[in-house]
From TrEMBL:
It catalyses: tRNA(Phe) + L-phenylalanine + ATP = L-phenylalanyl-tRNA(Phe) + AMP + diphosphate + H(+). This is Phenylalanine--tRNA ligase alpha subunit. The lineage of its organism: Bacteria, Bacillati, Bacillota, Bacilli, Bacillales. NCBIfam families: pheS (TIGR00468). One of its GO terms (cellular component) is cytoplasm. SUPFAM superfamilies: Class II aaRS and biotin synthetases, tRNA-binding arm. Its cofactor is Mg(2+).
Length: 398
Protein backbone atom coordinates (compact mmCIF):
# COMPACT_ATOMS: atom_id res chain seq x y z
CA UNK A 1 0.00 0.00 0.00
CA UNK A 2 1.33 3.42 -0.97
CA UNK A 3 0.12 6.68 0.53
CA UNK A 4 0.81 9.75 -1.63
CA UNK A 5 0.29 13.43 -0.69
CA UNK A 6 -0.42 15.72 -3.57
CA UNK A 7 0.18 19.44 -3.67
CA UNK A 8 -3.55 20.22 -3.66
CA UNK A 9 -3.89 18.57 -0.27
CA UNK A 10 -5.74 15.55 -1.68
CA UNK A 11 -4.42 12.24 -0.53
CA UNK A 12 -4.35 9.25 -2.85
CA UNK A 13 -4.20 5.76 -1.40
CA UNK A 14 -3.21 2.90 -3.67
CA UNK A 15 -4.38 -0.38 -2.16
CA UNK A 16 -1.95 -3.20 -2.63
CA UNK A 17 -2.11 -6.69 -1.13
CA UNK A 18 0.58 -7.62 1.40
CA UNK A 19 2.13 -11.08 1.61
CA UNK A 20 -0.98 -12.49 3.32
CA UNK A 21 -3.29 -11.07 0.65
CA UNK A 22 -4.67 -8.43 3.01
CA UNK A 23 -5.11 -4.78 2.25
CA UNK A 24 -6.71 -2.75 5.06
CA UNK A 25 -8.41 -0.22 2.82
CA UNK A 26 -9.84 -2.51 0.20
CA UNK A 27 -13.52 -3.35 0.24
CA UNK A 28 -12.76 -6.78 -1.17
CA UNK A 29 -9.60 -7.57 0.69
CA UNK A 30 -6.97 -6.13 -1.61
CA UNK A 31 -7.68 -5.25 -5.27
CA UNK A 32 -5.25 -2.64 -6.51
CA UNK A 33 -7.19 0.60 -6.66
CA UNK A 34 -6.48 4.28 -6.40
CA UNK A 35 -8.87 6.63 -4.69
CA UNK A 36 -8.46 10.16 -3.37
CA UNK A 37 -8.88 10.84 0.33
CA UNK A 38 -9.98 14.14 1.75
CA UNK A 39 -7.25 15.77 3.79
CA UNK A 40 -9.38 15.69 6.95
CA UNK A 41 -9.56 11.89 6.92
CA UNK A 42 -5.85 11.34 6.53
CA UNK A 43 -5.11 10.92 10.20
CA UNK A 44 -8.07 8.54 10.73
CA UNK A 45 -6.87 6.13 8.07
CA UNK A 46 -3.31 6.47 9.25
CA UNK A 47 -4.35 5.40 12.76
CA UNK A 48 -6.36 2.46 11.37
CA UNK A 49 -3.34 1.44 9.38
CA UNK A 50 -1.18 1.59 12.50
CA UNK A 51 -3.62 -0.50 14.57
CA UNK A 52 -3.80 -3.29 12.01
CA UNK A 53 -0.11 -3.57 11.49
CA UNK A 54 0.57 -3.27 15.24
CA UNK A 55 -1.57 -6.40 15.90
CA UNK A 56 0.20 -8.27 13.11
CA UNK A 57 3.62 -7.29 14.43
CA UNK A 58 2.69 -8.30 17.99
CA UNK A 59 1.45 -11.70 16.82
CA UNK A 60 4.59 -12.34 14.79
CA UNK A 61 6.78 -11.20 17.68
CA UNK A 62 4.86 -13.39 20.13
CA UNK A 63 5.27 -16.41 17.89
CA UNK A 64 9.01 -15.86 17.55
CA UNK A 65 9.41 -15.29 21.29
CA UNK A 66 7.42 -18.42 22.22
CA UNK A 67 9.25 -20.70 19.80
CA UNK A 68 12.62 -19.39 20.97
CA UNK A 69 11.73 -19.89 24.65
CA UNK A 70 10.43 -23.40 23.97
CA UNK A 71 13.73 -24.34 22.39
CA UNK A 72 15.51 -23.64 25.68
CA UNK A 73 13.47 -25.90 27.99
CA UNK A 74 13.61 -29.63 28.66
CA UNK A 75 11.21 -30.51 31.50
CA UNK A 76 7.50 -31.29 31.40
CA UNK A 77 6.82 -28.79 34.19
CA UNK A 78 8.46 -26.03 32.14
CA UNK A 79 6.36 -26.99 29.11
CA UNK A 80 3.19 -26.60 31.15
CA UNK A 81 4.34 -23.23 32.48
CA UNK A 82 4.86 -21.90 28.95
CA UNK A 83 1.51 -23.33 27.80
CA UNK A 84 -0.21 -21.27 30.49
CA UNK A 85 1.97 -18.24 29.76
CA UNK A 86 1.17 -18.07 26.04
CA UNK A 87 -2.10 -19.97 25.49
CA UNK A 88 -3.87 -19.80 28.85
CA UNK A 89 -7.04 -17.81 29.55
CA UNK A 90 -4.86 -14.95 30.73
CA UNK A 91 -2.02 -15.77 28.34
CA UNK A 92 -0.20 -13.38 26.03
CA UNK A 93 -1.89 -14.61 22.84
CA UNK A 94 -5.34 -14.26 24.38
CA UNK A 95 -4.47 -10.74 25.49
CA UNK A 96 -3.48 -9.72 21.94
CA UNK A 97 -6.55 -11.25 20.31
CA UNK A 98 -8.83 -9.35 22.67
CA UNK A 99 -7.84 -6.23 20.68
CA UNK A 100 -9.58 -7.55 17.56
CA UNK A 101 -12.75 -5.81 18.69
CA UNK A 102 -11.30 -2.53 17.48
CA UNK A 103 -10.87 -3.85 13.94
CA UNK A 104 -13.41 -3.65 11.13
CA UNK A 105 -15.46 -6.60 9.96
CA UNK A 106 -13.14 -7.03 6.95
CA UNK A 107 -9.99 -6.94 9.06
CA UNK A 108 -11.02 -9.39 11.82
CA UNK A 109 -11.05 -12.64 9.77
CA UNK A 110 -7.56 -12.07 8.48
CA UNK A 111 -6.14 -11.17 11.89
CA UNK A 112 -8.12 -14.09 13.41
CA UNK A 113 -6.61 -16.47 10.87
CA UNK A 114 -3.15 -15.19 11.70
CA UNK A 115 -3.88 -15.65 15.41
CA UNK A 116 -4.93 -19.26 14.79
CA UNK A 117 -1.74 -19.87 12.82
CA UNK A 118 0.33 -18.50 15.70
CA UNK A 119 -1.63 -20.66 18.20
CA UNK A 120 -1.15 -23.77 16.05
CA UNK A 121 2.57 -23.15 15.73
CA UNK A 122 2.98 -22.71 19.49
CA UNK A 123 0.80 -25.74 20.31
CA UNK A 124 2.72 -27.89 17.86
CA UNK A 125 6.00 -26.86 19.44
CA UNK A 126 4.59 -27.42 22.93
CA UNK A 127 3.56 -31.00 22.08
CA UNK A 128 6.93 -31.67 20.51
CA UNK A 129 8.79 -30.41 23.58
CA UNK A 130 6.40 -32.24 25.93
CA UNK A 131 7.02 -35.58 24.21
CA UNK A 132 10.77 -34.97 24.18
CA UNK A 133 10.77 -33.99 27.87
CA UNK A 134 8.70 -37.03 28.91
CA UNK A 135 10.94 -39.32 26.90
CA UNK A 136 14.06 -37.80 28.47
CA UNK A 137 12.62 -38.09 31.98
CA UNK A 138 11.72 -41.76 31.44
CA UNK A 139 15.19 -42.50 30.11
CA UNK A 140 16.77 -40.73 33.08
CA UNK A 141 14.61 -42.68 35.53
CA UNK A 142 15.44 -45.98 33.84
CA UNK A 143 19.12 -45.12 33.91
CA UNK A 144 18.99 -44.30 37.62
CA UNK A 145 17.15 -47.55 38.39
CA UNK A 146 19.28 -49.78 36.24
CA UNK A 147 20.92 -52.78 37.88
CA UNK A 148 24.30 -54.12 36.97
CA UNK A 149 23.69 -57.86 37.09
CA UNK A 150 27.44 -58.50 37.09
CA UNK A 151 27.88 -56.88 40.53
CA UNK A 152 28.25 -59.25 43.50
CA UNK A 153 25.11 -59.73 45.58
CA UNK A 154 24.59 -58.01 48.91
CA UNK A 155 24.09 -60.06 52.03
CA UNK A 156 20.56 -59.61 53.36
CA UNK A 157 20.46 -59.10 57.11
CA UNK A 158 17.90 -61.47 58.59
CA UNK A 159 16.60 -61.86 62.09
CA UNK A 160 16.48 -65.04 64.10
CA UNK A 161 14.17 -66.58 66.63
CA UNK A 162 14.52 -65.80 70.31
CA UNK A 163 16.32 -68.48 72.38
CA UNK A 164 13.20 -68.95 74.51
CA UNK A 165 11.21 -69.60 71.34
CA UNK A 166 13.79 -72.13 70.19
CA UNK A 167 13.66 -74.01 73.50
CA UNK A 168 9.86 -73.89 73.67
CA UNK A 169 9.58 -75.37 70.19
CA UNK A 170 12.11 -78.08 71.02
CA UNK A 171 10.20 -79.02 74.20
CA UNK A 172 6.96 -79.17 72.24
CA UNK A 173 8.53 -81.35 69.55
CA UNK A 174 9.85 -83.81 72.16
CA UNK A 175 6.49 -84.26 73.88
CA UNK A 176 4.53 -84.30 70.63
CA UNK A 177 6.75 -87.23 69.67
CA UNK A 178 5.55 -89.02 72.81
CA UNK A 179 1.88 -88.54 71.97
CA UNK A 180 1.14 -85.37 73.93
CA UNK A 181 -0.84 -82.45 72.52
CA UNK A 182 -0.30 -78.72 73.11
CA UNK A 183 -2.97 -76.66 74.91
CA UNK A 184 -3.13 -72.97 75.76
CA UNK A 185 -5.19 -70.89 78.16
CA UNK A 186 -5.75 -67.32 79.40
CA UNK A 187 -2.97 -65.42 81.14
CA UNK A 188 -5.56 -63.48 83.15
CA UNK A 189 -7.07 -66.20 85.30
CA UNK A 190 -9.66 -66.62 88.04
CA UNK A 191 -8.68 -67.47 91.59
CA UNK A 192 -10.80 -70.58 91.26
CA UNK A 193 -8.81 -72.11 88.40
CA UNK A 194 -5.42 -70.79 89.48
CA UNK A 195 -5.68 -72.08 93.06
CA UNK A 196 -8.88 -73.79 94.23
CA UNK A 197 -9.09 -76.46 91.52
CA UNK A 198 -5.46 -77.32 92.28
CA UNK A 199 -6.10 -78.14 95.95
CA UNK A 200 -5.17 -74.65 97.12
CA UNK A 201 -8.31 -73.32 98.85
CA UNK A 202 -8.50 -69.78 100.17
CA UNK A 203 -6.15 -69.07 103.08
CA UNK A 204 -4.11 -72.21 102.30
CA UNK A 205 -0.53 -71.55 103.51
CA UNK A 206 0.93 -72.96 100.28
CA UNK A 207 -0.42 -69.92 98.43
CA UNK A 208 2.39 -67.94 100.01
CA UNK A 209 4.80 -69.87 97.78
CA UNK A 210 3.37 -67.99 94.80
CA UNK A 211 3.17 -64.26 95.54
CA UNK A 212 0.63 -63.09 92.98
CA UNK A 213 -0.48 -60.06 90.96
CA UNK A 214 -4.18 -59.60 91.70
CA UNK A 215 -6.39 -57.47 89.45
CA UNK A 216 -9.47 -57.90 91.63
CA UNK A 217 -10.17 -60.18 94.59
CA UNK A 218 -11.09 -63.00 92.22
CA UNK A 219 -9.00 -62.15 89.10
CA UNK A 220 -5.21 -62.35 88.85
CA UNK A 221 -2.34 -62.91 86.46
CA UNK A 222 -1.78 -66.66 86.44
CA UNK A 223 1.16 -67.89 88.52
CA UNK A 224 1.56 -71.14 86.56
CA UNK A 225 0.04 -72.88 83.54
CA UNK A 226 -1.60 -75.60 85.67
CA UNK A 227 -5.06 -74.02 85.20
CA UNK A 228 -4.85 -75.03 81.53
CA UNK A 229 -4.55 -78.66 82.64
CA UNK A 230 -7.74 -78.37 84.70
CA UNK A 231 -9.60 -76.68 81.84
CA UNK A 232 -8.45 -79.45 79.50
CA UNK A 233 -9.72 -82.17 81.84
CA UNK A 234 -13.07 -80.39 82.11
CA UNK A 235 -13.37 -80.30 78.32
CA UNK A 236 -12.57 -84.02 78.13
CA UNK A 237 -15.52 -84.68 80.52
CA UNK A 238 -14.02 -87.72 82.15
CA UNK A 239 -12.63 -89.28 78.97
CA UNK A 240 -9.15 -90.81 78.89
CA UNK A 241 -6.34 -90.74 78.09
CA UNK A 242 -5.43 -87.12 78.74
CA UNK A 243 -1.92 -86.29 77.49
CA UNK A 244 -1.27 -82.58 77.24
CA UNK A 245 1.49 -80.00 77.70
CA UNK A 246 0.73 -76.35 78.42
CA UNK A 247 3.43 -73.78 77.55
CA UNK A 248 2.94 -70.11 78.33
CA UNK A 249 3.91 -66.94 80.16
CA UNK A 250 3.34 -66.69 83.93
CA UNK A 251 3.66 -63.93 86.54
CA UNK A 252 4.90 -63.83 90.13
CA UNK A 253 5.96 -61.00 92.41
CA UNK A 254 9.62 -61.96 92.51
CA UNK A 255 12.50 -59.53 92.82
CA UNK A 256 14.38 -59.58 89.52
CA UNK A 257 17.92 -60.92 89.77
CA UNK A 258 20.18 -63.33 87.89
CA UNK A 259 17.86 -66.30 88.48
CA UNK A 260 14.43 -64.73 89.10
CA UNK A 261 12.03 -62.62 87.04
CA UNK A 262 8.51 -61.38 87.72
CA UNK A 263 7.59 -62.60 84.21
CA UNK A 264 8.86 -65.92 82.93
CA UNK A 265 7.81 -68.91 80.82
CA UNK A 266 6.63 -72.33 81.92
CA UNK A 267 5.54 -75.57 80.34
CA UNK A 268 3.50 -78.02 82.37
CA UNK A 269 2.50 -81.54 81.42
CA UNK A 270 -0.33 -83.85 82.43
CA UNK A 271 -1.19 -87.48 81.75
CA UNK A 272 -4.37 -89.10 83.12
CA UNK A 273 -5.58 -92.63 82.48
CA UNK A 274 -5.96 -96.05 83.99
CA UNK A 275 -2.95 -97.52 85.83
CA UNK A 276 -0.71 -94.49 85.26
CA UNK A 277 2.23 -94.95 87.64
CA UNK A 278 5.22 -93.05 88.98
CA UNK A 279 7.46 -95.20 86.80
CA UNK A 280 5.62 -93.81 83.74
CA UNK A 281 6.45 -90.32 84.92
CA UNK A 282 10.11 -91.22 85.34
CA UNK A 283 10.29 -92.79 81.88
CA UNK A 284 8.73 -89.76 80.18
CA UNK A 285 11.04 -87.33 81.97
CA UNK A 286 14.17 -89.43 81.28
CA UNK A 287 13.30 -89.51 77.59
CA UNK A 288 12.77 -85.74 77.63
CA UNK A 289 16.07 -85.05 79.43
CA UNK A 290 18.11 -87.14 77.01
CA UNK A 291 16.57 -85.52 73.95
CA UNK A 292 17.05 -82.05 75.40
CA UNK A 293 20.50 -82.33 77.01
CA UNK A 294 22.10 -85.37 75.35
CA UNK A 295 21.92 -89.15 75.33
CA UNK A 296 24.24 -89.56 78.32
CA UNK A 297 22.00 -87.49 80.62
CA UNK A 298 20.70 -89.14 83.79
CA UNK A 299 17.91 -87.97 86.10
CA UNK A 300 17.12 -88.39 89.77
CA UNK A 301 13.90 -87.79 91.69
CA UNK A 302 14.01 -86.20 95.14
CA UNK A 303 10.98 -86.20 97.48
CA UNK A 304 9.25 -82.81 97.67
CA UNK A 305 5.84 -81.23 98.31
CA UNK A 306 3.31 -79.63 95.96
CA UNK A 307 -0.37 -79.19 96.94
CA UNK A 308 -1.64 -80.57 93.63
CA UNK A 309 0.47 -83.77 93.52
CA UNK A 310 0.92 -86.66 95.95
CA UNK A 311 3.57 -88.01 96.09
CA UNK A 312 5.69 -85.15 94.73
CA UNK A 313 9.28 -85.04 93.51
CA UNK A 314 11.91 -82.57 92.34
CA UNK A 315 13.73 -83.77 89.23
CA UNK A 316 17.44 -83.18 88.67
CA UNK A 317 19.56 -83.91 85.61
CA UNK A 318 23.23 -84.81 85.61
CA UNK A 319 25.41 -81.76 85.03
CA UNK A 320 26.38 -81.53 81.38
CA UNK A 321 29.32 -79.26 82.19
CA UNK A 322 31.21 -81.80 84.31
CA UNK A 323 29.47 -85.05 83.40
CA UNK A 324 28.20 -85.45 86.97
CA UNK A 325 31.62 -85.17 88.60
CA UNK A 326 30.97 -81.82 90.27
CA UNK A 327 31.85 -78.27 89.21
CA UNK A 328 31.08 -74.64 89.95
CA UNK A 329 27.93 -74.71 87.79
CA UNK A 330 26.34 -77.60 89.72
CA UNK A 331 27.85 -76.42 93.02
CA UNK A 332 29.99 -79.57 93.06
CA UNK A 333 26.96 -81.85 93.43
CA UNK A 334 26.96 -83.24 89.88
CA UNK A 335 23.23 -82.48 89.55
CA UNK A 336 21.09 -79.59 88.29
CA UNK A 337 17.45 -79.08 89.28
CA UNK A 338 15.15 -78.61 86.28
CA UNK A 339 11.51 -79.29 87.27
CA UNK A 340 8.91 -80.38 89.80
CA UNK A 341 6.59 -83.34 89.34
CA UNK A 342 4.37 -85.92 91.03
CA UNK A 343 1.20 -87.98 90.85
CA UNK A 344 -1.96 -85.88 90.46
CA UNK A 345 -3.71 -85.36 93.80
CA UNK A 346 -7.04 -87.27 94.01
CA UNK A 347 -8.88 -84.08 94.94
CA UNK A 348 -7.66 -82.37 91.74
CA UNK A 349 -8.91 -85.30 89.66
CA UNK A 350 -12.25 -85.26 91.43
CA UNK A 351 -12.81 -81.51 90.93
CA UNK A 352 -12.07 -81.94 87.21
CA UNK A 353 -14.66 -84.69 86.87
CA UNK A 354 -12.49 -87.83 87.09
CA UNK A 355 -13.01 -90.72 89.51
CA UNK A 356 -9.75 -90.97 91.54
CA UNK A 357 -10.62 -94.59 92.38
CA UNK A 358 -10.50 -95.48 88.70
CA UNK A 359 -8.04 -93.04 87.16
CA UNK A 360 -4.59 -91.85 88.12
CA UNK A 361 -2.23 -89.43 86.52
CA UNK A 362 1.07 -87.59 86.75
CA UNK A 363 1.95 -83.94 86.25
CA UNK A 364 5.16 -81.97 85.89
CA UNK A 365 6.17 -78.36 85.40
CA UNK A 366 9.39 -76.70 84.30
CA UNK A 367 10.64 -73.18 83.67
CA UNK A 368 11.51 -72.70 80.00
CA UNK A 369 13.92 -69.93 80.97
CA UNK A 370 15.69 -72.34 83.35
CA UNK A 371 15.98 -75.02 80.66
CA UNK A 372 17.37 -72.46 78.18
CA UNK A 373 19.94 -71.23 80.72
CA UNK A 374 21.16 -74.78 81.32
CA UNK A 375 21.14 -75.72 77.65
CA UNK A 376 23.07 -72.67 76.43
CA UNK A 377 25.18 -71.94 79.51
CA UNK A 378 23.52 -68.57 80.25
CA UNK A 379 24.19 -67.23 83.74
CA UNK A 380 21.60 -64.43 83.96
CA UNK A 381 17.89 -64.78 83.18
CA UNK A 382 17.66 -61.04 82.48
CA UNK A 383 19.53 -61.50 79.19
CA UNK A 384 16.34 -62.99 77.75
CA UNK A 385 14.36 -59.79 78.33
CA UNK A 386 16.79 -56.91 77.68
CA UNK A 387 16.70 -57.35 73.87
CA UNK A 388 20.46 -56.93 73.51
CA UNK A 389 21.17 -57.76 69.86
CA UNK A 390 24.71 -58.83 70.73
CA UNK A 391 23.21 -61.56 72.90
CA UNK A 392 20.32 -62.56 70.65
CA UNK A 393 22.31 -62.86 67.42
CA UNK A 394 24.39 -65.69 68.95
CA UNK A 395 21.43 -68.01 68.42
CA UNK A 396 20.99 -67.49 64.66
CA UNK A 397 22.76 -70.77 63.98
CA UNK A 398 21.40 -72.77 66.92
Amino acid sequence: MNVKVRGSGIISVINEQDESGFCPFSNKGGTATSRPLPGGRFFYFLMRLKEVYTVRERLEALKAEALEELEQIGQTAQVQELRVKYLGKKGLLTEILRGMGKLSAEERPVIGQLGNEVRSAIESKLEEKKEAAERAEIEAKLASESIDVTLPGRMVHVGNRHPLTLVTEQIEDIFLGMGFTVAEGPEIETDYYNFETLNLPKNHPARDMQDSFYITEEILLRTHTSPVQVRTMEKMKGKVPVKVICPGRVYRRDNDDATHSHVFNQVEGLMVGENVRMSDLKGVLLNFARQMFGEGTEIRLRPSFFPFTEPSAEVDVSCSMCGGKGCRVCKHTGWLEILGSGMVHPRVLEMAGYDPEKYTGFAFGMGIDRIAMLKYGIDDIRHFYTNDVRFLKQFNRV
